[in-house]
């Protein structure tokens, strides 16, 4: 990899060397560094104080054994992680991911992204991430509960409402947060609501948290469209994934008049030219926890299932990758461009490969990076913490209005910053630079810690 100014290049080389084999982490660091050239030119103090080098080294990394017993009585051993990346702006904040692909490189990429995303929200939250290589697929409720209890039996000592506040990510939703919170409460003998977010409504959760990442991504795209004097009305949209982010992105797109013609899961994708029926997707994915192919059995008629991972072959004007990292490669990006796609916004974390981003930018496709576009999830987590701290709870409408305002502010911050650094309309530069400056200034104020 090249194209970085000397000082940043040295930092990148050091990160790659010290974190050997962690490809996703290298990718996320490189992506941020490519935006920082004009910043270090204007503000050499960030280099002199080594604030960038410090940002690339987590404050603390925890790796631990998670033993549990499955329903057949067999002992299972998983590996748990929590990377506490940066707490200059507030307690470490970021989700837990349960997926067999989880290893230190994935947790570090997610934690690194989270620093800048959380900074961009303007809220008092640092960056962290965690998870385990546990595969929830096909596991019973009881197995998931035992796993969560074992994980928390180690993790609790590192958490606290002023220290580190996990939430969900892939494979971790309200059910898992419930088991984790129950175990935390039992061990500590404290009803410390603010220690986890994504809680249920009857035990300290916030309205809109479930919907927030998907809704927020669509609010962000709506701002992009508004800036072009356009709307969602009548637009063809493809959303990858069919988990929490995708489902609520689809819901909001439909509310705003767009038509979602395809969505997917790891087994393939469904195309429904009339527009996907969200109730059926919710039934298949949230209630049955089944494969997306079941959608077609229920829906019948016009819909069809394709057993292939490339949902990006379906023509659309707006594409929202909401599944997982590196799900759009260079070829897939080219197909999207050829088929007339004009806006891409990342609902997932780093779903577009560096090649894909390069092709979108060259082709004049508006590209919104995840750390801006999907920040609504963690922003609403911060709203949940605010409600917990004041022992209050707000209505759905009030919370949604705040989320929309936050997304509008992030959008504007990206554009203003991109302008200020000579790259008008470049959301990648705007998000990376604005996110970086807020956290870097806080780090400088706090001294060498
Ligand atoms: N996992 C989500 C993200 O990628 C949310 C994190 C949180 O709410 O703390 O931002």
UniProtKB/TrEMBL annotation:
<dbReference type="Pfam" id="PF02812">
    <property type="entry name" value="ELFV_dehydrog_N"/>
</dbReference>
<keyword id="KW-0560">Oxidoreductase</keyword>
<dbReference type="GO" id="GO:0005829">
    <property type="term" value="C:cytosol"/>
</dbReference>
<dbReference type="InterPro" id="IPR014362">
    <property type="entry name" value="Glu_DH"/>
</dbReference>
<feature type="binding site">
    <location>
        <position position="117"/>
    </location>
    <ligand>
        <name>substrate</name>
    </ligand>
</feature>
<dbReference type="InterPro" id="IPR050724">
    <property type="entry name" value="Glu_Leu_Phe_Val_DH"/>
</dbReference>
<keyword id="KW-0520">NAD</keyword>
<feature type="binding site">
    <location>
        <position position="381"/>
    </location>
    <ligand>
        <name>substrate</name>
    </ligand>
</feature>
<feature type="binding site">
    <location>
        <position position="168"/>
    </location>
    <ligand>
        <name>substrate</name>
    </ligand>
</feature>
<protein>
    <recommendedName>
        <fullName>Glutamate dehydrogenase</fullName>
    </recommendedName>
</protein>
<dbReference type="GO" id="GO:0006537">
    <property type="term" value="P:glutamate biosynthetic process"/>
</dbReference>
<feature type="binding site">
    <location>
        <position position="244"/>
    </location>
    <ligand>
        <name>NAD(+)</name>
    </ligand>
</feature>
<keyword id="KW-0547">Nucleotide-binding</keyword>
<dbReference type="GO" id="GO:0000166">
    <property type="term" value="F:nucleotide binding"/>
</dbReference>
<feature type="active site" description="Proton donor">
    <location>
        <position position="129"/>
    </location>
</feature>
<feature type="binding site">
    <location>
        <position position="213"/>
    </location>
    <ligand>
        <name>NAD(+)</name>
    </ligand>
</feature>
<dbReference type="Pfam" id="PF00208">
    <property type="entry name" value="ELFV_dehydrog"/>
</dbReference>
<feature type="binding site">
    <location>
        <position position="93"/>
    </location>
    <ligand>
        <name>substrate</name>
    </ligand>
</feature>
<comment type="subunit">
    <text>Homohexamer.</text>
</comment>
<comment type="similarity">
    <text>Belongs to the Glu/Leu/Phe/Val dehydrogenases family.</text>
</comment>
<dbReference type="InterPro" id="IPR036291">
    <property type="entry name" value="NAD(P)-bd_dom_sf"/>
</dbReference>
<dbReference type="InterPro" id="IPR006095">
    <property type="entry name" value="Glu/Leu/Phe/Val/Trp_DH"/>
</dbReference>
<dbReference type="InterPro" id="IPR006096">
    <property type="entry name" value="Glu/Leu/Phe/Val/Trp_DH_C"/>
</dbReference>
<feature type="domain" description="Glutamate/phenylalanine/leucine/valine/L-tryptophan dehydrogenase C-terminal">
    <location>
        <begin position="206"/>
        <end position="447"/>
    </location>
</feature>
<dbReference type="InterPro" id="IPR033922">
    <property type="entry name" value="NAD_bind_Glu_DH"/>
</dbReference>
<dbReference type="InterPro" id="IPR046346">
    <property type="entry name" value="Aminoacid_DH-like_N_sf"/>
</dbReference>
<dbReference type="GO" id="GO:0004354">
    <property type="term" value="F:glutamate dehydrogenase (NADP+) activity"/>
</dbReference>
<feature type="binding site">
    <location>
        <position position="114"/>
    </location>
    <ligand>
        <name>substrate</name>
    </ligand>
</feature>
<dbReference type="InterPro" id="IPR006097">
    <property type="entry name" value="Glu/Leu/Phe/Val/Trp_DH_dimer"/>
</dbReference>
<feature type="site" description="Important for catalysis">
    <location>
        <position position="169"/>
    </location>
</feature>
């Amino acid at each position: 990899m090249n194209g970085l100014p000397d000082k940043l290049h040295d930092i990148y080389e050091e990160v790659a060397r010290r974190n050997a084999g962690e490809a996703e982490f290298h990718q996320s660091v490189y992506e941020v560094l490519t935006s920082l050239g004009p910043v270090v030119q204007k503000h050499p103090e960030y280099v002199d104080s080594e604030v960038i080098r410090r940002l690339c080294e987590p404050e603390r990394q925890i790796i631990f054994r998670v033993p549990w017993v499955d329903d057949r009585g067999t002992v299972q051993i998983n590996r748990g992680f929590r990377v506490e990346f940066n707490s200059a702006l507030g307690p470490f904040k970021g989700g837990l991911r349960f997926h067999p692909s989880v290893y230190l490189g994935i947790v570090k990429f997610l934690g690194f992204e989270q620093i800048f995303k959380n900074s961009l929200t303007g809220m008092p939250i640092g960056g962290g991430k965690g998870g385990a290589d546990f595969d929830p697929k096909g596991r019973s409720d009881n197995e998931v509960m035992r796993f969560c209890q074992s994980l928390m039996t180690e993790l609790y000592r590192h958490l606290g409402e002023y220290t580190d506040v996990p939430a969900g990510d892939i494979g971790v939703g309200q059910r898992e947060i419930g088991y984790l919170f129950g175990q935390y409460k039992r061990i500590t003998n404290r009803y410390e609501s603010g220690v986890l977010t994504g809680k249920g409504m009857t035990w300290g959760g916030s309205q809109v948290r479930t919907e927030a990442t998907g809704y927020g991504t669509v609010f962000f795209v709506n701002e992009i469209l508004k800036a072009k004097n356009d709307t969602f009305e009548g637009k063809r949209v493809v959303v990858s994934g069919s988990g929490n982010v995708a489902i609520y992105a689809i819901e909001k797109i439909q509310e705003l008049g767009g038509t979602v013609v395809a969505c997917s899961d790891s087994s393939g994708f469904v195309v429904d030219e009339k527009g996907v029926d969200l109730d059926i997707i919710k039934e298949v994915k949230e209630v049955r926890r089944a494969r997306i192919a079941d959608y077609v059995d229920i829906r019948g008629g016009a819909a069809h299932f394709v057993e292939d991972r490339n949902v990006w072959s379906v023509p659309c004007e707006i594409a929202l990758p909401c599944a997982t990292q590196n799900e759009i490669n260079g070829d897939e990006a080219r197909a999207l461009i050829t088929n007339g796609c004009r806006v891409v916004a990342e609902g997932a974390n780093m779903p577009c490969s560096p090649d894909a981003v390069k092709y979108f930018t060259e082709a004049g496709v508006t590209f919104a990076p995840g750390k801006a576009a999907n920040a609504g999830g963690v922003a609403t987590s911060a709203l949940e913490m605010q409600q917990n701290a004041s022992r209050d709870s707000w209505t759905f409408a009030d919370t949604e209005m705040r989320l929309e305002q936050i997304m509008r502010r992030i959008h504007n911050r990206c554009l203003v910053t991109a302008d200020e650094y000579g790259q008008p309309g470049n959301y990648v530069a705007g998000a990376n630079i604005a996110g970086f400056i807020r956290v870097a200034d806080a780090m400088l104020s706090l001294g060498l810690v």
